[in-house]
Design a protein that fits this description.
Elements (H helix, E strand, L loop, with lengths): L1 H11 L6 H32 L2 H6 L4 H8 L7
C-alpha cells in the first residue's frame, strides 16, 4: 500500500505529507478556531446589549449583568 501511494505521489508530482506539514496544518487550524471563537463571543456579547429589559428578564439576566458580560475582554475570559 505504501509503495502504491509513493508511486501515485511521484506520478502526479506531489510529495507525501510530512510531520512538519501536519504540525503546520494543525497550528493553522487552531488559529482559525480561535479567531472564529473570538468573533462568535464578540457577536453574542454585543447582542446582549441590543436586548430590551423584558427580553433580558425572559432569559434571567439583569441589565447590569448584560453590560458586564458585554464589556468582558475576549482574551482573558
Amino acid at each position: 500500500m505504501r509503495a502504491e501511494n509513493s508511486l501515485r505521489n511521484q506520478a502526479d508530482g506531489r510529495s507525501p505529507p510530512t510531520a512538519t506539514k501536519m504540525v503546520a496544518h494543525r497550528c493553522l487550524y487552531a488559529w482559525q478556531t480561535t479567531i472564529i471563537r473570538y468573533f462568535e463571543k464578540r457577536r453574542t456579547r454585543r447582542d446582549l446589549l441590543d436586548l430590551t429589559a423584558e427580553q433580558l428578564n425572559d432569559i434571567g439576566v439583569l441589565p447590569e449583568e448584560a453590560r458586564a458580560e458585554a464589556s468582558k475582554s475576549w482574551f482573558w475570559e
